[in-house]
Amino acid sequence: MKCLSIMQPYASLILAGMKQYETRHWRTSHRGPLGIHASRRTTDEITMYCQREPLRSAIRKLGSSSREALPTGAILGYVTLIDCLPTHLIPAGDINDFERAAGDFRSGRFAWHLTNPVFLEHPILMSGRPSIFDAPFTINHECNSLSLPFLPIEEK
User: Fold this and answer.
1) Do residues 78 and 34 touch, judged by C-beta distance below 8 A?
2) Residue 32: beta bridge partners?
3) Which of 61, 85, 75 has the alpha carbon at shortest distance from 13?
4) Taking phi first (over 0 means left), then psi (-120 to 50 degrees means alpha), and beta for anything else, what does residue 40 get?
5) Whole-model pTM?
6) What domains sit in the chain, N to C, each tagged with a CATH number?
7) How far is CA 27 from the centre of its chain?
8) Cα 31 from chain centre
9) Count of Cβ atoms closer than 10 Å to residue 134 Cβ
């Protein structure tokens, strides 16, 4: 499965359906399922943004008191990546105030359009990597989990 490491709180906001665009300085040709890995890394800038609105309230809606209390170092869920466009091509009406506050839509960047977010019942602890990376999992929609390829999946 293709995966992407994203810093918190953005990884959880995507999986909660509160953020539908992930902005990057690079494009991808990948379309389809994409695992969302919550990076252990953060920046002082993100910590500062999380103490202000609207991110502070969004973190509370996730059931957490702070960004630091959100899970990291694990694949938390998956989404469907349906498009990747230069930010200047995203229609203005598609980006609400929260989305704009939670992303970097400056010129020269790319907006990855993410849909169908699913939190895993049991996050998978692992280290992330830069860029899109391959993880040895497949989606098991019936039990809301990711399966290792060498473990048999019981058929119903």
Assistant:
1) yes
2) 81
3) 61
4) alpha
5) 0.88
6) 2-147 (2.30.130.30)
7) 16
8) 14
9) 10
Classified as helix, coil or strand, 117 is: strand
The answer to whether 77 and 42 have CB atoms below 8 angstroms apart is no
Tens digit of each residue's pLDDT (9 = 90 or more) over 97-153: 999 999 999 999 999 999 999 999 889 899 998 899 998 877 665 555 555 444 444
Strands laid side by side in the 110-125 sheet? 21-24, 110-125, 74-86, 32-38, 2-6, 132-134
How far from each other are the two terminal CA atoms of the chain, in whole angstroms? 23
Is 59 in contact with 52 (CB distance < 8 Å)? no
- Residue pair 27/84 in contact (Cβ under 8 Å)? The answer is yes
Amino acid identity of residue 152, one-letter, is: P
Distance, CA of 62 to CA of 14 (rounded, Å): 11
Q: Which residues contact 131 (CB under 8 A, 6 or more apart)?
A: 26
Contact 77, 120 (CB under 8 A): yes
In angstroms, the CA 133 to CA 128 distance is 8
Distance CA 92, CA 70 (A): 30
25-40 pLDDT per residue, tens: 999 999 999 999 999 9
